[in-house]
Write a structure and sequence with these properties.
Layout lengths: L2 H13 L2 H8 L3 H15 L4 E4 L2 E4 L1 H31 L1 E7 L1 H17 L3 E7 L3 H6 L5 E4 L8 E16 L9 E3 L9 E4 L3 H10 L6 E5 L2 H9 L4 E5 L11 E7 L4 E9 L6 H25 L1
Parallel strand pairs: 3-4, 3-5, 7-11, 8-9, 8-10
Antiparallel strand pairs: 1-2, 5-12, 6-10, 6-11, 6-12
Helix pairs in contact: 1-2, 1-3, 1-4
Length: about 300
């Protein structure tokens, strides 16, 4: 007996006729009749009696119906239990990441998902990843903020340095490098809002204030502005790999160069799940591989 034949038989019993059963099952009547005949031949019994209003289940058919319903119930219970185990194994890690690092770390997130498809990543674009961790809104934070809070564990990932991105027709486009103090002469500059305090500090130490016409946390908006000649932009070196535009030029900053450390943070008081530990290991591995690659390309 096939499960399909049992399903057909139970539906006919519920419907009271072959015609109604075909409508519920979405099969033709000849197909339904053939499968029931196969079932009757297997047990060498008659399952239905023909009556004027349809069919009635025979005494032998009632026995098969009772046992068949029990079988279908057990199968449904097994299906629900398996689905419950699958849902349980599908864990989620929530990550708050500062916007400046999203593009650089995106390949890491994609690689992690491919390697661990049963672990879902919930990535939140936030300039306040530290507070998101402290308040328990995310499991892990990736941030440039320096925390002295004893409740937070911090793991250093990498150091970011800034370079100047200009249009090919910009006055500085033919320069390979300039000192940071040269930015004082620029009429306009764009930079990420989350790095504003850092850049202000560097400008202040050089005796001037950077003038910004646009502040954005979006790297695409920042690059788009440079491409259209709105001004120059200070961008982290991690974005350089994604730039392949003949209209853009990179000018290195020498001497007093803005830089900051990117760290992965989590709450000290919370027992780290094995999935979060796996993510942290994969993140560290990705960063080290990227450092080696950058070192080799530099040589």
């Amino acid at each position: 007996m096939e499960l399909r034949q049992l399903e057909y038989f139970i539906q006919i019993c519920k419907s009271g006729s072959f015609t109604k059963a075909t409508e519920e099952l979405g099969v033709t009547q000849p197909t339904l009749s053939q499968q029931i005949r196969v079932l009757e031949d297997e047990y060498n019994i008659q399952l239905f009696d023909r009556v004027s209003r349809g069919v009635e289940v025979t005494e032998a058919g009632k026995i098969l119906l009772s046992k068949g319903n029990a079988i279908m119930k057990l199968l449904e219970e097994a299906r629900n239990e398996i689905n419950g185990r699958n849902r349980k194994s599908q864990e989620t890690i929530s990550i708050g990441c500062c916007p400046a690092e999203l593009e650089y770390l995106a390949p890491c997130f994609m690689r992690f998902h491919q390697k661990y498809p049963n672990i879902s990543l919930k990535i939140i674009d936030t300039e306040d990843a530290a507070n998101n961790v402290l308040e328990g809104r995310v499991d892990i934070g990736i941030t440039a903020s320096q925390l002295s809070d004893a409740s937070v564990l911090s793991t250093h990932l990498y150091r970011q340095e800034m370079v100047l991105l200009v249009h090919s027709e910009h006055p500085l486009a033919d320069k390979s490098s300039i000192p940071f103090r040269s930015l004082k002469q620029m009429n306009s500059i764009m930079f990420r809002v989350q790095n504003k305090s850092l850049l202000d500090m560097y400008g202040f130490s050089c005796g001037f204030t950077l003038r910004s016409i646009i502040e954005t946390s979006s790297s695409s908006v920042l690059i788009h502005g440079v491409r259209h000649g709105l001004g120059a932009a200070l961008i982290p070196t991690s974005l350089l790999e994604s730039l392949s535009d003949d209209s853009l030029r990179i000018v290195k900053l020498v001497g007093h160069t803005p830089s900051w450390d990117i760290s992965l943070i989590r709450l000290h008081s919370v027992t780290m799940r094995s999935t979060a530990s796996v993510f942290i290991r994969e993140m560290d591995s990705y960063v080290r591989e990227a450092e080696v690659s950058l070192s080799c390309s530099g040589n």
